[in-house]
């Protein structure tokens, strides 16, 4: 026969069951907490992975930007170099244009001077011939010149000319006469006969533009000195030739006679030309108007 269960044991057993239920409830709570924690950790891990991915992308972007920056810096340096080269090239072009402009102006001036000289090729200037009146007409001037050529130049037949007229301001001295002959040979015939005027107040000279006259004035003292030294000297427009060589003054303040045979002038031969210009001022002596 079964013995009756003690009520106290039952109570104890119930208490144990209650405690076990409480512990199970706690375990359920803890399990829920752990699950939530795991979910949170998973979220954090996912976020960290996302952040890591973003950081990687940013690093890649930074590397790309860095490469772009370096490329930009190189391009900027290249552009600065190109700009510097362009400036140098423009400066060189500017210098070349300036030189070409100067050369062109000089060449144009020389061409114009040459045309002026050619237009005066048949002209001679007569000085010292008295004027018939203060209002002398060109016709009278022509007749006076014809008489002068017959009487003073001892020409049996007066040379024909195109026209003759006086120029310059009226002064105590008679104004010079410029005469244009029909041909250059006629002009030369008169000019070469001017030696008969030596010792008189009359003079015959070729007509040149002012600039050519200025250049000849610079060379005139050297021409006279060469003549005094019994050297062959003659002018050809604005050039002086001594003993068959073109003379170029080395020191314009001293009358040092130098010809193309001297070392001082060889540099002009190397340049292939004489100096481009002569100064307007230099050693000058008064020209009495006699023939050169």
Automatic annotation (TrEMBL):
It comes from the Eukaryota. Residues 250-292 are annotated as: Disordered. Gene3D superfamilies: L1 transposable element, RRM domain. PANTHER family: L1 TRANSPOSABLE ELEMENT-RELATED (PTHR11505). This is Uncharacterized protein. It comes from Mytilus coruscus (Sea mussel).
């Amino acid at each position: 026969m079964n013995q009756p269960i003690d009520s106290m044991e039952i109570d104890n057993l119930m208490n144990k069951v209650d405690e076990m239920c409480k512990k199970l409830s706690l375990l359920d709570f803890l399990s829920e907490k752990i699950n939530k924690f795991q979910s949170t950790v998973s979220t954090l891990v996912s976020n960290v992975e996302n952040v890591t991915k973003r950081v990687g992308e940013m690093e890649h972007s930074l590397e790309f930007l860095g490469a772009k920056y370096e490329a930009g810096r190189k391009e900027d340096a290249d552009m600065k170099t190109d700009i510097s080269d362009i400036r140098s090239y423009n400066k060189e072009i500017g210098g070349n244009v300036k030189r070409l402009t100067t050369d062109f102006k000089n060449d144009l001036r020389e061409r114009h001077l040459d045309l002026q000289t050619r237009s005066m090729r048949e002209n001679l200037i007569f000085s010292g011939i008295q004027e018939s009146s203060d209002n002398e007409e060109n016709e009278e001037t022509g007749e006076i010149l014809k008489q002068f050529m017959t009487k003073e130049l001892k020409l049996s037949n007066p040379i024909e000319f195109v026209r003759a007229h006086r120029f310059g301001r009226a002064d105590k001295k008679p104004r010079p006469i410029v005469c244009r002959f029909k041909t250059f040979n006629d002009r030369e015939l008169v000019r070469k006969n001017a030696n008969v005027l030596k010792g008189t107040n009359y003079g015959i000279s070729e007509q040149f533009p002012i600039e050519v006259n200025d250049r000849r004035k610079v060379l005139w003292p050297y021409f006279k000195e060469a003549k005094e030294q019994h050297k062959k000297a003659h002018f050809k427009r604005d050039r002086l030739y001594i003993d068959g060589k073109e003379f170029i003054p080395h020191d314009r303040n001293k009358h040092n006679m130098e010809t193309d045979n001297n070392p001082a002038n060889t540099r002009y031969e190397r340049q292939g030309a004489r100096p481009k210009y002569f100064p307007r001022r230099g050693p000058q002596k008064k020209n009495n108007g006699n023939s050169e």
